[in-house]
């Protein structure tokens, strides 16, 4: 049975304009969600690197596009080991609680430019608080992303805050409200529950994007 890890994660670049995007031509896995949904915590958990992405209790703290270079590793007894280099991309949260109108418009503009113009974006993980599926702000973001044709993966965060039956019920609601080609996944950054399914999903997404056999 294959196992998956994300290794060698390190900060690579920060951008607020298209001309600041890295030119390494690596596939990109981006993370987007409303402010305080737990994007930075999820990235740190995926990479087993507590201080990689900054974590703050203040909504809207991440105000730039941050790139982290890493490799997705698959280990299999029969097929051996395979590593896929890629970028994790931490996008600013939408719905900034303490942000002025001009700054909000500026950030929205470069988020939109990245999502619609990046040639290396292979999947965008839309993070939704699993305790509160179906919030209007998340549904608006999903509708815009879906209409843009962006490959999506819905991830329900903070799964450890729910009982098992609540988690299953809310996951079913995510799949109904946010339909994509792949089922929604539950994740707990605190306990790393859901790491294996998400890492496996991303590994195969990168394989498909790069046309690797």
What does this structure look like?
The protein has a 7-stranded mixed sheet with strand order 1-3-4-2-5-6-7, sandwiched between helices. A hairpin with a 3-residue loop joins strand 3 (65-76) and strand 4. It has helices at residues 39-46, 101-117, 136-148, 164-177, 195-209, and strands at residues 3-15, 28-33, 65-76, 80-90, 121-129, 152-157, 185-186. It is built from 5 helices and 7 strands, in the order ββαββαβαβαβα. With 213 residues, it is of the alpha/beta class. Residues 55-61 and 96-100 have low confidence and may be disordered.
What's a quick, concise take on this entry?
This protein is α/β, with parallel strands linked by helices and 213 residues long.
Quick tags:
5 helices; alpha/beta; single chain; 213 residues
Helix content, binned percent: 25-40%
Low-confidence stretches: 55-61, 96-100
Distance between the termini: 19 Å
- Looking at how many chains there are and whether they match, the oligomeric state comes to single chain
Element-by-element helix/strand order: EEHEEHEHEHEH
Spatially, the strands of the biggest sheet line up as: 1-3-4-2-5-6-7
Structural class computed from helices and strand pairing: alpha/beta
Keywords: Cell cycle, Cell division, GTP-binding, Magnesium, Metal-binding, Nucleotide-binding, Septation
Domain EngB-type G: 25-208
Function: Necessary for normal cell division and for the maintenance of normal septation.
Protein name: Probable GTP-binding protein EngB
